TrEMBL record, chains A, B:
Molecular function terms from GO: DNA binding; DNA-binding transcription factor activity
Alphabetized InterPro entries for the sequence: cNMP-bd_dom, cNMP-bd_dom_sf, Env_Response_Regulators, HTH_CRP, RmlC-like_jellyroll, WH-like_DNA-bd_sf, WH_DNA-bd_sf
SUPFAM superfamilies assigned to the protein according to its UniProt record, in alphabetical order: cAMP-binding domain-like (SSF51206), Winged helix' DNA-binding domain (SSF46785)
Leader sequence segment: none
Organismal lineage: Bacteria, Pseudomonadati, Bacteroidota, Flavobacteriia, Flavobacteriales
Protein known as: CRP/FNR family transcriptional regulator, anaerobic regulatory protein
GO cellular component, one term: cytosol
Length: 210, 210
DNA sequence: ATCCTTCTGTAACCATTGTTACTGCACAGG
DNA sequence: CCTGTGCAGTAACAATGGTTACAGAAGGAT
């Protein structure tokens, strides 16, 4: 655990803080598809992501989903922090997009470290900053873009975070993330294939030139 | 300035912090419609709202607008804080929805006070928390609601923050805020009038029962 | 009063997205 | 090998929202 922490966070946290994290944190390794947080969950810990990708989803009363953004190594979940301040109920769902390693820190420490360590304060503020901007771009894409543009953006982003030009998703998977329907996504993907930008297969697709 | 501050913030900030704010802050009174922040502006100060309502807007490259949320007394602009951490360029526009009084605090103090005052830390974290959730509901309404529901929500929220069941807006104004077109809004408003929920007039409308 | 500008109402039309329904294909498991 | 299940392709249609165009009403300015 200590070497993982030092690798990812050694350059931003003071050694004493790293020590504290090692003391109170618990190491966790989760497989792809593992549901880390469900909407309405009471949060007891704050995750520090060591490796892998976590996707953060929003859902409404009817069960309609929407992908908000991905967390990558070095990220933490601002939503979690936000929740720790308030009623502590999660507003979002977190699912491992790939196998992932992370460290869970008890939320009680948050406040303490915020007073004690400048690096922690900067980290927390920076996380909020990044997450707010991430949410803003998500909002932009929903408000200002059409579905074909959103789809292209989605494929690009997914390829980026997984470092893989093969997208291992069914059309239905994509439709869920974009809060659309399978038929619509199939239609648009077919267009992209006709334009030579992607190549479709069963259960996956290749990005050729987006 | 001191009595304004004490009225709105006296119960959450320590007296020493109030003193510091009085020392370095500048009082500002702006009329309805005053543009406080434009997209791309470099931010030099952080606003603490004393009275009035500020609306926060997002805009894309083509100049299409979208209302994100309102700030009310006791609120501050998390976006501003977020911007102070990063490249300091504003991602949003802030316009006074009503006449408003506020205190501008130099951003250099933010970091200092965060280390020094627990109440300030809580205030800043809480602001982020509230703003994140506000952004989430905005996102919800765009992603999951249809225009008629969004319109009703908009009218209710506007009536709430202005404490006035008369909405002093033209159909075009509303269309801008909801990122729709005037004709669409007129159509939907007419339907609401036929349902007896509102009464339409030139340049304003009355909410009867929403 | 007359003119001009702005706001509103409305119709006709279009584009995008979502829905329903049905097809065939791929593949895993017996 | 057959069969069931899930995935993808496609057509026809519906609904929502956006666009264009035009007419008339309100209200201010001269």
């Amino acid at each position: 655990m200590i070497q993982n922490l030092t690798e990812e966070y050694g350059n931003i946290f003071e050694p004493e803080l790293i020590n504290e994290i090692v003391q109170v944190g618990t190491f966790k390794e989760v497989p792809e598809g593992y549901k880390l947080i469900e909407i309405g969950d009471y949060l007891r810990g704050m995750p520090l992501l060591i490796s892998g990708v976590i996707k953060i989803l929003r859902e409404d009363e009817d069960g309609d989903e929407l992908l908000l953004y991905y967390l990558e190594k070095g990220d933490t979940c601002s939503m979690t922090m936000a929740c720790c301040m308030g009623d502590a109920k999660s507003e979002i769902r977190a699912v491992a997009e790939t196998d992932a390693k992370l460290i869970m820190v008890p939320i009680q420490k948050m406040e303490e470290w915020t007073a004690k360590y400048k690096s922690w304060r900067n980290f927390v503020f920076n996380s909020y900053h990044v997450r707010l901007n991430e949410l803003l771009s998500t909002l932009d894409s929903i408000a200002f873009q059409k579905m074909d543009e959103r789809l292209i953006g989605y494929l690009k982003e997914k390829a980026r975070v997984t470092k893989d030009d093969i997208i291992h998703s069914t059309h239905q998977d994509i439709a869920y993330d974009l809060h659309s329907s399978r038929v619509v996504i199939s239609r648009l993907l077919k267009k992209l294939e006709e334009m030579g930008k992607i190549k479709l297969h069963r259960n996956y697709l290749e990005i050729l030139a987006l």
